[in-house]
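Priority: medium. Attachment 1 of 2:
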C-alpha cells in the first residue's frame, strides 16, 4: 500500500473539523438561526442545570454546525471547502496538532489531499451521511432524541427550509437495542427542550414503536413530526426469490394480521415501490415513502464492528439489506417530490480495522469516557490453565466477596456469565453455578437465565430480565448466550465472566463493555473475569476497534511509520537440505527401575494463576498458584495403574509392577499427579513409553534452493516500524556496505538489540554477508523452518532473524531474543527445529540474548 493511500485510510478529518469549530465558535454561531442558538445555550453542559454530558453536547454542536453552517453538505464537499478555505472556512489556520500529535494536512503533499478526497467521494450516497462515534455508555440514545427534537422545532419554525427533518425513522439492529430505544418515548423532554417550546412539542409529537412482526404503521400520509422506532427487519426490503401465485397472495391476505386495506393494496399491485426490480416492499416501507423530509437515524450502528459495520454503513462493495433499504427509500421520496434529509449513524468506534471511516464527524473515545467518569473503571482478571468449574468458582467467590448484597441506587449488583451455547448453559454452566452457590450459602433463586428460547426462558424470566435495573429485582447471577452486545443498558451490572472462547472474537469486547455503564455519584469499578485466551482476544479487539485509544492507553507504537520495501537485485538464493523422517517401534527389555525424574518437572505451567489489571492500560500482576481453586482428580494406586495401562499396551498387573519398582515409587507419583493431573499425560506416560519402547528413525534428505525474498506483486512490500529501528540502503552510513548486506532496500527491526546486532556484525571483517530475514513473516520468503508448536501441537512456520555468511563460506542462522524469552517453550521448540535444519544444511544455528548484544558481544557467537 502506498504512503498516499495509507494516509487516506488513517486521516481523521473529524479532528480538524472540531478544531476549526472550537477556534471559530463565536463567528459560526452568529450565522445560526436564533432558535438554534437558544437550543444550544439551554443544553450547554457547562450550565449548572444542563442535562447533557460533555460528549453529548459536543456531538450536538457538530450536528447543528453541519445543519446550519454547512447546509447538510456531504462530507467530501465539506472537506473540499475546508481544504480550499472557502464557503465558511476562510478563517481556517494552516497549522495545528491533533490529539495524536499529528501535524495538520497542510504539512502534507497535495497528492495526499487528493487521496483523502477521492476516498470520501468514493463512498458518496444520494443523501448526507454522517457518523457520530461515541463510545458505549455516553448516552447515544438521548443524544439521538435531542437531535430529533431540535429538527422538529426548527422544521415547525421554518417549514420550507429543506435542511430540517419533518419526520424521523430510528433503526435498531436487533430486539435488544429496540427495547433500549423506548427511552426516546419515555424520556423527560423538558431536560433538553427549552420550556417555551415544550407544550408545542408534546402536543404535536407522534411516536410509533414497531415492536411485533406484522405491526401496521398508521402514520397519516403527508403528516409531520412522526418518530418511527423500528427493528431494521420490520422495515427492510428483501429480494424476491420466487414470484408468489395469486393463491399464495390470497392465503397471505387471509392469514395476515395487517389491515385488509394494506393486504389488498399488495395483492392488486397498488402503490408499488418505485425502484421495484426484484425488491419486495411491505406496508411499513410504503408508508414511509409518503412522509416528507425524512431523517434516518441508525442507533448502535456499532452492533457490527469491523467489516460488518463497514457494510452496514455503506463503506463496502457488498450492499446490506439495511443500506439498500435506505437508498431505495431516498429514491422513492425523491420521486414523490421530497427527500431523505440525511442519515445519522450513531456508533461506538470511528474505525473499521485499520481504517478510519471517512464520514465520521465527531468521536469520543473509551479512554476519555473512563477518565471523565462517564463509565465505570474496569478491573480485568485472566486465569491461566483454568478448568471451567475452577474459573466459575473463582469468579463467583470474588464477585460475592466484593459486592455481596450491597445496593447501588437501591439496586443489587449483578454478574453476567456467558455460555457459548444453550446446551453448555443447561448441561454444564447452570448445574455448576447452583453447586457453587449452595457451597457459599447463596440462594439459587438469584439465578436468571435468558437464552431467548421459550422452552428454557419463560415470559416471567423475560419480565425479570427487563426489570433487572430496578430496586425490585433480586437476581444477581445472569446466565446468557450471545446477549453481551449493545442495547442491554443494565447499569447495575458490575461483572462479566467469559470462560469459553466464543465463535465471534468481537463478542469478547462487546460482552466486556456491558458492565462499564456508570451508576451512582462515585465512579465504581466493573469486574471482568476471562480465561487467558479471552484476555488476549480482548487486547486484540481493543486494538482493532479503538486503535487510537489503545495507542494512547499503552503509549506505544504511536510513532510508527509505513515503509515500502523493495528487492535489491540480484535476488539472493540459498541452498538448504530438507529432511524427512519415518519411525519404527520395538519393545525394550526393562532391567532397572524406571526413574520418572519428578524433581525436574516445571510445575509452573500447571499452576492456576490470576492475572489482574486495573484499568484498560494498567500494569498486570500475576498471583501465586491458586491451589485450592484448581479442579483435581484424585488418583489412588489402582486408578493410576488403570489410567496408565490404557496407553501402554500392557496389562494392569505388568503396569503396576513397573510403577511399584519405579523411582520415586507409585505412591509419590500418585500424589503428584493428583495435585497436577496433566503431569500424568505430559510427563509420566511419555517417560514410561520411552522406557518401554524404542523408536528408530529413518531419514531421507533432499537438497533444494530457496529465494530469500519472493518477488512482490505490487513491486514492494509494506512494513510498519519505528523510524529509529530502520536501516535504509540510501543512508550514507550503509551505502558503502551494499556488497555485504541489503537484499532489501530497507530493514525494519523489531527491537534495539536486533538493529545493534546488525550494525555490529555488518562492520565485522570476519563476516562476508549478513541479511536480515525476520521482517517478512507472511509467506514473502522461503527461508522458514517448520516446528511443532508445544501449545497447540500444530505445525507452524518460524522465520529466523538473520542469515550470516562468514568469510570462510560457512552460514549461520541467528536469532536475537529477549532475555526473558530464552527459556520459553515455543522458543525452545523453534530452536530444536532450526538446529536440525541447519545441521542438515551444513549450517549453524545460534541464539543470542538481547542483553549480550547491548553489551557489545554480538561477534562472540561466530
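Attachment 2 of 2:
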Amino acid at each position: 500500500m502506498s504512503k498516499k493511500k495509507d494516509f487516506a485510510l488513517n486521516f481523521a478529518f473529524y479532528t480538524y473539523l472540531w478544531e476549526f469549530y472550537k477556534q471559530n465558535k463565536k463567528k459560526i454561531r452568529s450565522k445560526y438561526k436564533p432558535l438554534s442558538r437558544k437550543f444550544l445555550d439551554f443544553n450547554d453542559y457547562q450550565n449548572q442545570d444542563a442535562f447533557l454530558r460533555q460528549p453529548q453536547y459536543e456531538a450536538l454542536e457538530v450536528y447543528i454546525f453541519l445543519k446550519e453552517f454547512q447546509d447538510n453538505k456531504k462530507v467530501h464537499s465539506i472537506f473540499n471547502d475546508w481544504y480550499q478555505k472557502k464557503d465558511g472556512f476562510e478563517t481556517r489556520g494552516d497549522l495545528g496538532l491533533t490529539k495524536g500529535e499529528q501535524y495538520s494536512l497542510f504539512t502534507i503533499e497535495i497528492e495526499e489531499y487528493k487521496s483523502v478526497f477521492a476516498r470520501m467521494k468514493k463512498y458518496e450516497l444520494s443523501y448526507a451521511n454522517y457518523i457520530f462515534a461515541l463510545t458505549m455508555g455516553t448516552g447515544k440514545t438521548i443524544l439521538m432524541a435531542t437531535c430529533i427534537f431540535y429538527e422538529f422545532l426548527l422544521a415547525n419554525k421554518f417549514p420550507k427550509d429543506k435542511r430540517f427533518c419533518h419526520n424521523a425513522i430510528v433503526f435498531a439492529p436487533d430486539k435488544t437495542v429496540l427495547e433500549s430505544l423506548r427511552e426516546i418515548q419515555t424520556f423527560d423532554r423538558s431536560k433538553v427542550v427549552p420550556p417555551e417550546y415544550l407544550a408545542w412539542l408534546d402536543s404535536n409529537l407522534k411516536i410509533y414503536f414497531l415492536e411485533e412482526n406484522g405491526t401496521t404503521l398508521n402514520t397519516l400520509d403527508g403528516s409531520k413530526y412522526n418518530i418511527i422506532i423500528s427493528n431494521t427487519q420490520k422495515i427492510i426490503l428483501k429480494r424476491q426469490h420466487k414470484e408468489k401465485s395469486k393463491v399464495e397472495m390470497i392465503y397471505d391476505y387471509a392469514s395476515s394480521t395487517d389491515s385488509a386495506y394494506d393486504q389488498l393494496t399488495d395483492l392488486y399491485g397498488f402503490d408499488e415501490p418505485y425502484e421495484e426490480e426484484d425488491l419486495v416492499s411491505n406496508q411499513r416501507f410504503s408508508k414511509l415513502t409518503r412522509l416528507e423530509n425524512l431523517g434516518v437515524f441508525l442507533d448502535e450502528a456499532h452492533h457490527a464492528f469491523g467489516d460488518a459495520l463497514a457494510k452496514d454503513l455503506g463503506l463496502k462493495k457488498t450492499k446490506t439489506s439495511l443500506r439498500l433499504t435506505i437508498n431505495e427509500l431516498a429514491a422513492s421520496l425523491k420521486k414523490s417530490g421530497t427527500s431523505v434529509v440525511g442519515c445519522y449513524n450513531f456508533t461506538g468506534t470511528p474505525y473499521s480495522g485499520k481504517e478510519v471511516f471517512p464520514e465520521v464527524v465527531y468521536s469520543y473515545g473509551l479512554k476519555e469516557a473512563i477518565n471523565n467518569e462517564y463509565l465505570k473503571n474496569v478491573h480485568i482478571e485472566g486465569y491461566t490453565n483454568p478448568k471451567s468449574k475452577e474459573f466459575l468458582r473463582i469468579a463467583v467467590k470474588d464477585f460475592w466477596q466484593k459486592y455481596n448484597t450491597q445496593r447501588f441506587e437501591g439496586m443489587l449488583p449483578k454478574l453476567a456469565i456467558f455460555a457459548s451455547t444453550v446446551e453448555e448453559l443447561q448441561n454444564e454452566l447452570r448445574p455448576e453455578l447452583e453447586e457453587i452457590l449452595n457451597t457459599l450459602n447463596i440462594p439459587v433463586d438469584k439465578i436468571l437465565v435468558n437464552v431467548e428460547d421459550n422452552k428454557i426462558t419463560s415470559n416471567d424470566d423475560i419480565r425479570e430480565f427487563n426489570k433487572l435495573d430496578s430496586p425490585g429485582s433480586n437476581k444477581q447471577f445472569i446466565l446468557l448466550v450471545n446477549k453481551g452486545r449493545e442495547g442491554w443498558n443494565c447499569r447495575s451490572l458490575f461483572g462479566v465472566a467469559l470462560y469459553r472462547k466464543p465463535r465471534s472474537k468481537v463478542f469478547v469486547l462487546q460482552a466486556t463493555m456491558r458492565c462499564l455503564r456508570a451508576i451512582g455519584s462515585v465512579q465504581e469499578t466493573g469486574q471482568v473475569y476471562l480465561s487467558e485466551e479471552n484476555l488476549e482476544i480482548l487486547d486484540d479487539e481493543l486494538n482493532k476497534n479503538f486503535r487510537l485509544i489503545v495507542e494512547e492507553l499503552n503509549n506505544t507504537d504511536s510513532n510508527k511509520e509505513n515503509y515500502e520495501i523493495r528487492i535489491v537485485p540480484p535476488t539472493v538464493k540459498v541452498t538448504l537440505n530438507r529432511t524427512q523422517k519415518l519411525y519404527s517401534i520395538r519393545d525394550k527389555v526393562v532391567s532397572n527401575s524406571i526413574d520418572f525424574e519428578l524433581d525436574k518437572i516445571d510445575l509452573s505451567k500447571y499452576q492456576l494463576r490470576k492475572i489482574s489489571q486495573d484499568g484498560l492500560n494498567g500494569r498486570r500482576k500475576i498471583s501465586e498458584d491458586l491451589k485450592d481453586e484448581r479442579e483435581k482428580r484424585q488418583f489412588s494406586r489402582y486408578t493410576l495403574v488403570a489410567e496408565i495401562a490404557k496407553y501402554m499396551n500392557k496389562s494392569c498387573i505388568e503396569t503396576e509392577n513397573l510403577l511399584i519398582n519405579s523411582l520415586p515409587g507409585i505412591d509419590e507419583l500418585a500424589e503428584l499427579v493428583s495435585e497436577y493431573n496433566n503431569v500424568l499425560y505430559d510427563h509420566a506416560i511419555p517417560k514410561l513409553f520411552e522406557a518401554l519402547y524404542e523408536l528408530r528413525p529413518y531419514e531421507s534428505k533432499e537438497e533444494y534452493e530457496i529465494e530469500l525474498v519472493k518477488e512482490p506483486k505490487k513491486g514492494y512490500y509494506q512494513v510498519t516500524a519505528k523510524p529509529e529501528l530502520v536501516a535504509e540502503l540510501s543512508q550514507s552510513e550503509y551505502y558503502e556496505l551494499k556488497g555485504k548486506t541489503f537484499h532489501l532496500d530497507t530493514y525494519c527491526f523489531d527491537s534495539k538489540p536486533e538493529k545493534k546486532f546488525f550494525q555490529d556484525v555488518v562492520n565485522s571483517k570476519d563476516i562476508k554477508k549478513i541479511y536480515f530475514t525476520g521482517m517478512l513473516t507472511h509467506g514473502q520468503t522461503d527461508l522458514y523452518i517448520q516446528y511443532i508448536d508445544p501449545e497447540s501441537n500444530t505445525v507452524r512456520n518460524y522465520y529466523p532473524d538473520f542469515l550470516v555468511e562468514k568469510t570462510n563460506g560457512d552460514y549461520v542462522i541467528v536469532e536475537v531474543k529477549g532475555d526473558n524469552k530464552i527459556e520459553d517453550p515455543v522458543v525452545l521448540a523453534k530452536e530444536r527445529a532450526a538446529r536440525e535444519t541447519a545441521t542438515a544444511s551444513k549450517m549453524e544455528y545460534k541464539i543470542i540474548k538481547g542483553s549480550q548484544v547491548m553489551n557489545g558481544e554480538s561477534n562472540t557467537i561466530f
